[in-house]
UniProtKB/TrEMBL annotation:
This is ABC-type glutathione-S-conjugate transporter. It is found in: Vacuole membrane. Residues 439-678, 1051-1285 form the ABC transporter domain. One of its GO terms (molecular function) is ABC-type glutathione S-conjugate transporter activity. It is a multi-pass membrane protein.
Amino acid sequence: MEELCSVSGLDPLWDWNLTWYTSRPDLTQCFQHTVLVWFPCVYLWTCSPLYLLYLQLRQHRGVIPLSKLCCSKTVKTQCLFLVSGLTLVSLVSLTLVSGLTLVLAVVIIQVDRMKGSRSSILLFLFWTLLVLCSLVPLKVNIDLVVQGHRRPLQAFSVTCLNLLLEFMRDKNAEMWKGFLFATFLFLLSCLQSLFHHHYMFHCFTVGMRLKTAVMGLVYRKCLLLSNSARRQCTLGEIINLVSADTQKLMDFVVYLNCLWVTPIEITLCFYFLWQLLGPAALAGIITVILIFPLNGFIAKVRSKLQVQMKFMDSRIKLMNEILNGMKILKFYAWEEAFLRRVGVLRDGELDALKRSQILHSVSLASFNSSSFLIALSVFGVYVLMDERNVLDAQKIFVSVALINILKTPLSQLPFAMSTTMQAVVSLRRLGNFLYQDELKPDNVERLPHNGDSVVIEGGSFSWTNDGLPCLQRINMKVKTGFLVAVVGHVGSGKSSLLSAMLGEMERRSGFISIKGSVAYIPQQAWIQNTSLKDNILFGGERKESWYHRVLEACALLPDLDILPAGDSTEIGEKGLNLSGGQKQRVSLARAVYRRSDVYLLDDPLSAVDAHVGQHIFDRVIGPRGLLKDKTRVLVTHGLSFLSKADLILVMEEGHVSEMGSYMELMERRGAFAKLIHTFSGNQRRGSSTPRDKSEKSVEVNINKTADQDLDAEDAGKLTEADKAHTGRVKLQMYREYFRTVGLTFIMTIIFLCAFQQAASLAYNYWLSLWADEPTVNGTQSDHGLKLSVFAALGFTQGMAMFGTTLAIALGGIVASRHLHADLLNSVLRSQMSFFEVTPSGNLLNRFSKEIDAIDCMIPDGLKMMLGYLFKLLEICIILLLATPFTGLVFYVASSCQLRRLEAVSRSPIYSHFNETVQGASVIRAFGEQRRFILHADHRIDSNQEAYFPRFIATRWLAVNLEFLGNVLVLAAAILSVRGRDELSPGIVGLAVTHSLQVTGILSWIVRSWTDVENNIVSVERVKEYDSTPKEAAWTLEGSLLPAEWPTTGNIQFEDFGLQYRKGLDWALNDITISIQDREKVGIVGRTGAGKSSLALGIFRILEAAKGRIIIDGINIADIGLHDLRSRITIIPQDPVLFSGSLRMNLDPFDTSSDEDLWKALELAHLSSFVSALPQKLNHHCCEGGENLSLGQRQLLCLARALLRKTRILLLDEATAAVDLKTDQLIQSTIRAQFDGCTILTIAHRLNTIMDYTRVVVMDRGSIAETDSPPQLLHLQGHFYQMCVEAGLA
């Protein structure tokens, strides 16, 4: 380089006299024209290959059109090329290098455009370096600075501080040097901020991508889980995985680099300390070595306390079951029992969290006190080693600055270790989930279109790999186009046979094959939360003529007239605004529309009456139906259809006892023939109306009237999407949170924070006094006293810090306990209408993610925010003492609106997961996994679209805020330089040392305040449901209700009227009827007639709009809801079981003896089944009772009714899912055991009520006629017409 300069006629490369030892510093011409020109060029040529490779490997984003901006950048770069040629004409080689570099910049601009990249960090840094290198007089050492990173830049800052303090001691030094050092401090701090936040941006981006990928992975796994794995991995656990565990993995990415960068930073800091204080630095290393094992032990203990997650899984699982079975809870008045169950799980969760937080507080206090402990050990050893070792301002505050650099990694390390530990636990949980058994693709062999449609040879199937086979010795061949009927008693294996054909069961032995595509109609219809049309099309293309034929064949056209927006009407979760029959017919229409090769129908006709059932059989399933050329396997209890089947399978205890055509089986005179002879005379069609009796049918009908002025889209809308508030979080939310924390905790926290920072201020000021003490004969006196005071103040601060963090953690747990209890009470006390319009994903979001944020995120944010705010206050006091003219500009803006949008977009993810898990078998049967995966990915992406701008906004704010902090550093340094004649080196060192911490402190204040502001949104969202419409009180104080009420069971309706919402048409109107004790009353009517509305009125699920209901002389509106609902009993249409033991499902309050339970099971014809179970009454029921057949679940509901022993019983079509023999047994049990009770039956099979005392015929919300069945037949009115259509008259 020297030779190049001399050949070109320039001065030497470097000249100290020209650059440093002068009052007007400058750089040599050679340095300006070589180093400062080549440095940006070398950077671009070095990094461009890696950058171009990155663009090549990155996903292509499309070509950006050639814009004016791109053209102007290209032209200006070419102009710079020409200018460089003219400027450096004397140095041909330099001209060539710089010119080619600018050409390379033009190429990169065009490549960026072609690859869809709108901005290039490579070119941004290149232009920045080019500009900086052109500012020759002020940028002497810029080549060293720009190569640094965050921590090396801090080391350079310490070097500048050292030079500044040396300048303060040297009264003869030129003033410009002081300003130069102050400027370097400012520039280095700015670069540190830019590098740090660019790093944080990439960390968050990687973390977000990891979170998205894991959520997608969990969803894909859900579609592959085997039946045994599905029973172990509950929906609550899955929701927890995608809400809490994925977030912990994302947090881990942010702190990951702390684990390996920290040792490097510690090494560098102690190297500089050794240079400054010599062997005394070893004392600081020993202190650090002692701190790490302590916190490692704490982290290990905390990892064992992660049972909190297990409690949380169980709580979310239970909450999901509660939300799905809310109507049953209200019918049975079981809310308080389930409140206690949730409370026990919540207490266990918070107890584990409390113990973990205590240990975390110890860890935080030890790490945050590490800077003091290192300073104490280093300074103590230094002054005690040799009395001639003097601690002056330069040594003390340069050492303190180095230790403060060390403090950042040491203070972040507990968070890094805690996050790592939580991430390891989450990874283990995710691993356990992803390792669960999957359905084997070879369970069923798929064959091309030739041969028999379904073949099973020697088949043996079980639900689990190690369980007993549920199906054995299955041998069958089904020819293409055959109609196969499968019959048998409850629990005989009919539904299991269809599951085996779908590949849902484990094939233990034998062979099974299916030819062509499959469509599946489950016994309990699975309906999506979308429009009726989309439920039927199920991702297929709409073909109008075929679509209309399917609707007509499935008897859905009359329902389109009832629904507010026709087939565009939104169907609620699980089809909540459809009746049972409507849901089953939609499920059937979905399958028919697909035109599959093989149809597996699991008793779809049980949900409709015989009139509609005959229509569906004739038009869809039968020999002349739409599916006449398809292979159909039909599970049925309807004997009237069997004669038209090509093949009949009779199932008995998991094997095929008989098989053949109808005539063949009748000729054998076996069990099948006996069954036909026994029941063929008794089986009649049940009613002429579709069983679509559900109150929801009434609701959609009256909604049509109310919404007639709306367009079709709005009229068909049912569920309410999660809404985001706007503006800042209201101060009321902060007041609400701190109110639940309690005044005692708040005052304690504020006092401890102030006391801790006062102790910190005191020991730092003590150091400045120590530094300013003059030396006598090269020594200082009273080292012991100085060290003792310093140690006392430091230990006091450490204890106060531990108390602060512990108080915040415990206060957060107290607040979380209250907020969760309030949310749970608000939800359980809400009216049923609230659950009909609120997707379960919205509620699960509150109980999982939002409660988790209140548990952990808000207290952690408060710890950091309060700590750094009080630290900032301490710095301000020090700076005002040292340089009174320094002011502080502080600004914080929250991103809470983006947080709200992110929270709102998260609810649909949970709803979709919920829906998918429940309908996984249907999705797999139809082969729609790919479409549902894409739908899930879209919802996850929508959630991340709200999350990404949030942390970008945070980074932008932090950079701007830290710039203000850097201005503060500059102001403190310049004012110190100007006032060096009045200020002591000690106070200057104290001021500048603390001002250097401002940028980091402001960064953490931004982060912690934003976290608190964002997470306080969780409080806002949890408190949203405080204002939902609530039911009446569960119990009334001072109620004089007799203990044995009702004693007779008299029911009187007096001018009773019911509306689903105020302003809508009457669901029931002018109902006046008196039902005497022990009377048996059947309630019949067509769809929307108001049959179930009567039941809702009796149970006060809906409150009376006019009139009243009197039971045994007491107006039911004058007593508590639980007093009413616990004294009457309903056997519902949909049997709902909860995860837990059979005992809990029968008697959640645990008030009945074992003898009573066994007696109820015996009367419900379940005692033999339960006796055969290994754990008998303690047998664990899976979520939703999936390990029991639908018929067995219905019998358990009968057992519940037998246990309650009330004087009033209401049956809501309770025997639809059982075979004829079991139905006959149930009817006889009801007649015998409830002989002294008043019975109201919403009838499905008219033959079951023909011997009733009275029949009430409902029509359009009013009583059309009522009398005994013989008398009504004689009148030849509505009831007579129904009986004629049903073949009973």
